[in-house]
Amino acid sequence: MEARRLGARLCIWLMALGSLPALPFGAAAQSLPEDGDSEATAPPPAPAASAPSPTETGTTRQGTAYRLRIEGPRELAALLERHLDLSRFRSERDITEVEVGRLMSATPAQARALLETEGYFAADVKVARQLSPDPGKPSLITVSITPGPRATVDRVTLEIQGHFQEALEAEDPRTVRRERGLRNRWPLKPGAVFTQAAWTSAKNGLLTSLRGEAYPTATYAGTVAQVDATTHTVRIFVVADSGPQFRVGEIKVEGVERTTEEAVRNLAPFDLGDVFTEKMLLDYQETLQKSGLYDGVAVELDPDVTRPERAPIVARVREAKLKSATVSVGFSSNTGPRVGLEFTHRRPFGQEWVAGTKLLYGRDERIAKLDLLSYPKPEGYRNLVSIGSEYLAAGGATTLTQRLRYGRTQDTERVDRLYYLEYNRTSVDIGGDTRIDTAIWGNYEWTRREVNNVLFPTRGWILTAHAGSGIAHDAENDRGPFGRLYARGSYYHPLGQRRVLQLRLEAGQVIKRDTLNVPDTLLFRAGGDDSVRGYGYRTLGPVRQDEVVGGPVLLAGSAELMWPLSQRLRDWYGAVFVDAGNAANEWGDWDAARGYGFGVRWRSPIGPLKADLAYGQATGKLRLHVSVGASF
User: Fold this and answer.
1) Section 566-573 average pLDDT
2) Is 253 helix (H, G, I), strand (E, B) or coil?
3) Domain containing 303 — which CATH number?
4) Looking at the domain assignment, is residue 209 inside a domain?
């Protein structure tokens, strides 16, 4: 029994020792073996070890058979304590003196192998045992380590063979730029500290970059790190084989039952024949998920090396339910409490459309709307038909709007487009006097996002622009043309230590004759959560009969500084802000209303939750603003 137990422990020890790199290279060097094409992300290199100090004498733990003390730099002592067999087997109650002796004998070699993974190839390790004069107290085993100098990279030889090399020799501009970028991003440059983790991370990073763009079958022809223990330097040799360059061929669709394969293919953000990149698959998958037609999506390349010039893309989808309904209860500081119901049918009357019905009832806002959105057309465009009615009580005026709209929309990774023809009928009740204005007009809306995170941006910018024109017919039976322009931009700039400066500016103008009135919903007002805080929703604008109505011109802006509240609450931020803006009948009448305040932000999974307490200078009152989600 004892022999079997000892044999098992020795097997464990030999396996652990055999997994560590230590192969001879010449008289005073060694090579770290290739560890395969692992895609795991390795941790960054550990900092250089410091010499032991009186307060850093190692670690001591109480065990059943013996006590263990490891003397040396703290981070290295912790490494040995985690992985040494002498540390792991000390809790064995029935371990024999023979087994303890063998563990002690194996410790120097095992410790040196562990230290080599952190770049110490000339470490000195000593093991000593001190018996206790008290028969009932376990003996003390001390492992003393002197790590010596840490190895650094002396020379790097990096080669990429295969189609990549052929394109490079042909001086293909894209490949030349990419080769330069791969070399610049290689982290283990001459003079860098060498560790096993950094070595693995560097190899994985290079291979991931090659596989992610044009060369999905890239692999290593050979990788060697030659260590010279006398000079404490490492020479690195890396030879990668890119394999053939892949281009997109046909799109194979799987999982379609009610919808159509063409709808899946039309959402592809690439053309047949494009050079393959991993990003295009991720973009394609995200576009399919956003379409509202599928609950599950998986997109992958078929890396068939026999036909890389027309590699198939396989899109597997799980269709969303034919019908779905959502009930909502919420609150907005803009329009108060509300309840809502949304019903979606993804093939009404057997047609290739998605029908969405929205009903919302709130204190100050009520909406009834039906949207018909076609299945995706070529280039991802979708036809849109919408009919709806909206009620809004804000700024003392009550507005009732009916809309009928027909157009097309296209949503891509960075750019959204919407253009439509609309009939608009709006009635405004001001002090018991109701006026009705109508318009038929065409509009183009364009949004571009260049941010690091769509839900919670901290770097980049977002720009939205609208332009439209049409014919208005007002309550005085005046008729004539008009134009409408609007733009809004948000800029996010990091200031260090996770602080973020956010700047926002919006401007708009309706161009028309002075005597012509257009529907109030095509004019502008300011104030509210996402405008000038410190004022009620849409309560800033021209005043008619002591009530706020829309104005033809708008200018508003904001500056906000956001910072993390603590290291522990990493998703919570504090903020201070200054807002200013207003709407008016003409630029000569424009006078900015200012708001100041502070608030908190929570980076939730569905977008930022914002709560702000703002002071409106024009009213001299404080106002609480609460909102959730990202507004573009």
Assistant:
1) 87
2) strand
3) 3.10.20.310
4) yes
